[in-house]
What we know:
The chain is mainly alpha-helical. It is built from 16 helices and no strands.
Amino acid sequence: MKSSTIDRRLLTILLVVFVQMLGASLIFPVLPLYAQREFHLSAELITILASSFFAAQFLSGPYVGRLSDNYGRIPVLIVSQIGTVISFVMLAFAPSVGWLFFARILDGITGGNIIVAQAYITDITPREKRTESLGYIFAAFGLGFIFGPALGGFLAAAYGPTVPFLVAAVAAAAVVLLTWYALDETLSAEERRMARTRRAGSLTVGSLLGGAPWALPLTLILLIGFLGQFALGLLQSTFALFGEAVLFQGESREVTDVGIGLLLSVVGFSQLFTQTYLLRRLARRFDEGQLVVLGSALRTIGMLIYASVTSPWLGAFGSLFFAVGFGIASPPLQSMSTALVADQDRGSVLGWFQSSTNLSTIISTAIAGVIFARGPTVPYWIGAATSALVVLAMIGMMRWMPTKSVPVSES
Length: 411
């Protein structure tokens, strides 16, 4: 396959991820405060609302990845994106708390967009460039996060809390059209047929427990991904509430909404910088395991900053360190998981990886409200501790099973 074809398809799938993330991040700073102000939900229920999305995604993740192996990346991408459009519209016009939960669960069930996008990229990328290419997914995340939260905050402050959901629905609908008209299927009809005729796929709970050669290292990677995600779950479910209670205490609604959106935009800038500049250079000097250790250490520092400061200006440094650390650690960990299994199971293993991180997010977001009620900074102290635990776990894994360096292209 010619490199120009790979470059075109890579750019297109990254554009799809960017537009998808732009829409999703529009509602990120708005939804918790929308649920609190308009539906009078407590912090405990708000974080359970967040958890419901990840619970649904956890249950559907492996099936979405397997469906994309069996029937192709494009059909599954389109169906999942249509589910997102419907869920955003439902949030905008929700007449009750039950509708809020239903909308988030629907988005979680159909929300295999990123799993399939990652599988698509592994299809078109050689092994030696996979960490770099998966990193571009997080760069697209970052670019969407630069504009999405700030735009969501401004729209909510200027036009009301439902407008960001409608704009997000329009962005998701644009992604459906972009996928339909601009992306080519990466799996041939023969590859899809072979995937469907395989008994149940080699990636099952039984195979993880049954002594397959890749079972133990993959289980360890999934556990490390679980621990690494825990801090993110605590942060993303409480950050808007934390911003209102601590960083912007005493400020107006408008200032709070815009300020929280801007702080989340710092996350986006940091992700973009990490994936387009920093990760490629670090990958030339460190192997995948070392990158996970470095990123997790920086993520620990970011959580400690959040837990210690009360100024939004200093809080921006927490966003910087956390986002850079997350951006350095996540792509190599995913790349390590895909290297353990056969090529035809790439979609499935990424589904398992996302299910592992979603399970962590379910637990962390479900308990985050209770923890937050004990003190607005307590979730961030706990997040720092779990991030530090990832550092120790990865160092232990590297000593038992040394990781390999992955050359990064100079281009």
